[in-house]
Amino acid sequence: MAKRLTEEMVIARTKISDLSKIKRLNCWGSELVDVSLLRKMPSVEVLSLSINKINSLADFQFCKRLEELYIRQNDIRDLNEIMYLQSLTNLKNLWLGENPCANIEGYRLAVIRALPQLQKLDNVAITQEEMREAQRRGKILAHPDDETQEESEEEYQSSPTQAAVQQQPQYNRYQEYSEQEYSPPQRSPQRQEVTVS
């Protein structure tokens, strides 16, 4: 069973019962997978959740005052998850290293391009030159929610007309070829005399 962040855990570590007033939370090494409770913590500024089993950054987008996020050694595989952090304008320090997504070629430049507000990534300061390089060569990431929506829209658009599309190719197919290409080859008289026994 996936271990989740609970109110009891948060209260025990922060000594604050009102989740909306928590500014700092340290739950590193807790084997957490589900951190959806973060949605109730809009005022948190520093989160230390390294050495867990978190596989998505979706819940962090609700922490609007987040300045520092330590989430190294988790299970973030999709680099596009970074896009969930894009609206966090106060986020200055992100430590995401030692996640599977950090092994993707172009990881650092892609993250810097997606999160230009960062000052430090994986405990290394971001230079102005690196920022310019990220804007020029950093991979453009797609928001995971947009990908899901696009896929469902494509399915929706293609499924109602699928029967019509299957009937059309017999007409379109002939238009793609010239008459010579489509016509069966002419047999020479010599071939007509050959009999097969």
In short:
This protein is of the alpha/beta class. The protein has helices spanning 7-14, 107-114, 128-137, 144-158, 162-167, 169-176, 179-182, 189-193, and strands at residues 3-4, 24-26, 32-34, 46-48, 68-70, 93-95, 120-121, 124-125. The termini are far apart.
Explain this structure.
Mean pLDDT is 82; it is low at 149-194. The chain has a six-stranded mixed β-sheet with strand order 2-4-5-6-7-8. It has eight helices and eight strands. The chain is α/β, with parallel strands linked by helices and 197 residues long. It has a single domain (3-143), classed as Leucine-rich repeat, LRR (right-handed beta-alpha superhelix). The relative contact order is 0.09.
Task: Jot down its keywords.
197 residues, 8 helices, 6-stranded mixed sheet, 11% strand, two-stranded parallel ribbon, alpha/beta, globular, single chain, Leu-rich_rpt, Leucine-rich repeat, LRR (right-handed beta-alpha superhelix)
Write the layout of secondary structure elements.
Layout: E1 3-4, H1 7-14, E2 24-26, E3 32-34, E4 46-48, E5 68-70, E6 93-95, H2 107-114, E7 120-121, E8 124-125, H3 128-137, H4 144-158, H5 162-167, H6 169-176, H7 179-182, H8 189-193
Parallel strand pairs: 1-3, 2-4, 4-5, 5-6, 6-7
Antiparallel strand pairs: 7-8
Helix pairs in contact: 2-3
What is the CATH topology? Leucine-rich repeat, LRR (right-handed beta-alpha superhelix)
Order of strands across the biggest sheet?
A: 2-4-5-6-7-8
Percent of residues in β-strands: 5-15%
Q: Over the alpha carbons, how many angstroms does the gyration radius reach?
A: 28 Å
Major beta-sheet overview: 6 strands, mixed
